Amino acid sequence: MSLNTSLLISILMVLVIIRALRRFLDLPTRLPRLNGLLNYIWGPGVVLGLLALALGWKGNQTDQLDELYMLFVLASILVVLARVRHYRPARTLLLALAPYTVYSAIELLLAVTGRELMKQYDDIFETSKGFALIWLVTFIFIARSQKKTLEAERLQREEETKAKERIEAQNLELERLVAERTATLTTQAHELQQALTELRTTQAQLIQAEKMASLGELTAGIAHEIQNPLNFVTNFSDVSSELVGELEEEQQRPDRDAALEAELLADLKQNLQKITHHGQRAASIVRGMLEHSRASSGERQPTDLNTLADEYLRLAYHGLRAKNKAFNATLHTDFDQNLNKVEAVSQDLGRVLLNLFTNAFYAVQKRKEAASEADGYMPTVSVSTRRGPNDTVEVRVRDNGIGMPEGLQQKIFQPFFTTKPTGEGTGLGLSLSYDIVTKGHGGTLAVESKEGEYTEFIISLPA
Amino acid sequence: MKILVVDDEADVRALFEQRFRREIRAGEFSFTFAYSGEEALEFLQAHASEVVLILSDINMPGMSGLELLRRIRQQYSAPPPSPPQVMMITAYGDTESRQQALQLGANDFLTKPVDFAALREKLTTIGIHEN
Fold first, then answer.
1. Residues of A in contact with B113 (CB under 8 A)
2. Given an 8 Å threshold on Cβ–Cβ distance, is B97 in contact with A328?
3. Entry's InterPro entries (chain B) (predicted)?
């Protein structure tokens, strides 16, 4: 084989090997500088070739040139591998190449120094070469499988890293969503809190409005109730001054009628008592009205239920009469005169009674409107007091009005429930009454009714 | 002249008896009192011919003055003897009540507080007319 050919083949082989090595070890990234130098690995081969040509080497002298070059290449590869020995396949390759390199070096050395030994140990050398080559190939395979394993591990790690990043990204997104939702919820909670506060305010206002509305219903009744005693006060004082005039006249006469004088004086005395009585009557009505409008002190005081019920019955009746003059009803009272006073907030209880009476009058009015003349329907509202079972006192407010079906009786104590047309009732009357009786006085408020016949409310208070 | 006064306030009796003391003593007027419409009708059944004038309150528990008026006009419409005059008295001096009363056949309509001087004049006129 000519020098050029064998050297050329060697150079080509080297280029192929270097290319494979580059790929295998990923040299451009691991060792960029050495990788650059490897581009010129053909250089020494060509130099050797040219040198041989120039010097006119021939025959034996040129036999080892390609081997020398190969040894140089092997050394270079060893250096490269040593530089990347931290990479396991590189280490394995190092191990793979070592015997062959040693073999090549010794062979070359022997070739240069003398061929006798070579001849003598030809078999051993051949065997060694075979062994070195098998070793080389085996370890290259091992290195390859190591590289594959490493690659797989790397891929797996990358996959894991990616997964981790994905999870982290998802976590971030989730955290953002949670923060967003939390903010929304906080806002909502705040808004709800605000709405609740507003509702509470409105409720308080409604309760006060209901109170004032009931006072409005009372006003006409109160005016009427005050007008009557005031008329008596005026009339009795007026007539009394007439009596005094008569008395003076009588005194002037020579024949004084003692009996007439006594009669006049008796009348005068009676009139003054009546004036006092009617004055007090008016005053008590005004006091009641003031009490009704005033915010409740919530203080319980001994209260005469008979008086309270009677007073509010009249007020409610005249209140309604003032609004609807054609309306008329029989008022019936049945009071237990031996009833003990009960501890109660009279103005609160008054509101309850007023509410029950107003409802009763409403019910009889409705039935009256529906009834024909021939029915002879007599609207009647009655109130009675008596001692109830278990040391209680009962006030019953009964009307023979339109009554209520069973279904309605369940609902009437609910706030805002009303059977009246919009604007006529707040729907708070009975629910407030219920609260006043149960929560305020530890009593009970019950209803009995039959549709088209009657309704009866029973207030039961601890005596 | 017999006058029936219908009012649920009992003190009306004392008031009328004192206001018209002289007339009562002179025998010009004689008053009878009823404290409800029902009571008034009851009294009228027995003394229909005697009563010349009825003074009635409108606002009374039970039968109202207007209802009483309606019944009186129904039951005692035809003479003889001549039907009693009816004067309505009310605290609610609104035109609606007045119209309703006059429509039902009231002869007069007075508002509380009653002007007794004016009432006395009216009663006297009726008394003279009667005689």
1. 230-231, 234-235
2. no
3. Bact_response_regulator (IPR050595), CheY-like_superfamily (IPR011006), Sig_transdc_resp-reg_receiver (IPR001789)
